[in-house]
Amino acid sequence: MEKTVGEINERIVDGSVHVVDAIEMCDIVEELGAEGAAKEVDVVTTATFGAMCSSGAFFNLGHSDPPIKISRMWLNDVEAYAGLAAVDGYIGATQLSETAGLSYGGAHVIYDLVSGKSVHLRARGFGTDCYPAKEVETTITLDDLNQAVLLNPRNAYQRYNVATNSTDSTIYTYMGTLLPNYGNATFSGSGVLSPLCNDPTFQTIGVGTRIFLCGAQGYIIGEGTQHDPENGFATLMVKGNLKEMSPEFMRAATFEKYGVSMYVGIGVPIPIINERVAASCAVRDSDIITNVLDYGVPRRKRPVLAQVSYEQLRSGTIEVMGREIKTSPLSSFKKSIEIAHLLKEQIERGEFLLTQPVAPLTLKGSAKPMSQIERKTLVREVMTRNIITVHPDDGVADAATKLIRGDFNHLPVVDEGGRLVGIITSWDVSKAVANGASNGKVADVMTRKVISSSEDEPVESAAHRLHAHNISALPVLDSERRVIGMITSEDISRLVAGR
Description:
The chain is of the alpha+beta class. It has twelve helices and 31 strands.
């Protein structure tokens, strides 16, 4: 059985259309089969509501008097791109405020405008005969803009990798805060409701597909950046009129010690034009598999620790290498359901007609790594390998002797197997002496929570960790947590000085 989008639109107009959401469709296909479901159902609604960093808005400010050719501009101290026509701009969601830092960014500016708030505009120009003004400062609202278009280069990831952290320290990422020693795992995506999981071969989703975008009717304008459908990571590029959007379906978000992102609500209707489309809309959370990655490894290619389904992720725990890890979503499944139901109601009321794509999305994408000319120096190339260690039961006086004889400031503390259990520094010894504990054991004064490094990570990453934790040395560990070296701020200084 075949139906056209035009025939489905006729049913929308005459009120006879049968619309279900993607969760309901699973049971319908199971009960009736794909052929029966294709006869029964006309449209399946899908949706997602999650952090989508690759978002932003084009806008036109209108001309000032005297006119200005803007070369740089800021909205609430967030710089917007001005390399366009005189008073056009583009503000990216993740661009940070020059005064508020990580707590406010482009996503907040967009959200404030959609919420009806005014924002402060500051602009500079270089002055020309036709654009003599060199500075403009004013306040604007969304109504003051001639055009404001949300245009997001990469949204609605088909699925997303799960993040966890193997290190001894809490790390702060775009996947949220990751607790040490596999303390949690975070994931994103709406699983069974994911638009691209319900049409993975783009039988109905394409360029020109009308969608629900933050409360307005928007459009898919192509595949998104890093579109990689061959590996199950397809993406969408979308646009819509910012003036018609609602703050109820977008949010500005700050990720602690990482930066800003924007939550975007997207709903995609899938016309059930045949049984093949019906079959693809029967996908369940248990069918969608994704990788668990170790974000504690600060490399482009992170280790895959396990593969899990969205059903397992949504249960609250997953098992990784024999460990039970608590999971938490970064995206809102509840909001996704709300959008899918709202889109369903709009279609049933005849307020939302479907469109036939004018061009298909490509089934071949590209998410290859950056081409880099400069080779990064690795920790193994600069670390000190002849390491003196102490045992927790050694005396503080013994540790002091080793520090002095070796001209060190840090001694890793290891167990009988050579595995790191702590670190003791010259400062720890000095404090022990001052506190009358010089006859005590190393275990009494050592630092047990140790920030460490691995030999195959770039020196740049180790340097970031030294700076972030305000320390001067990192024990270098192998995969069994045995100490194989030490990298210090002095090692890095010598590397920089030698270039």
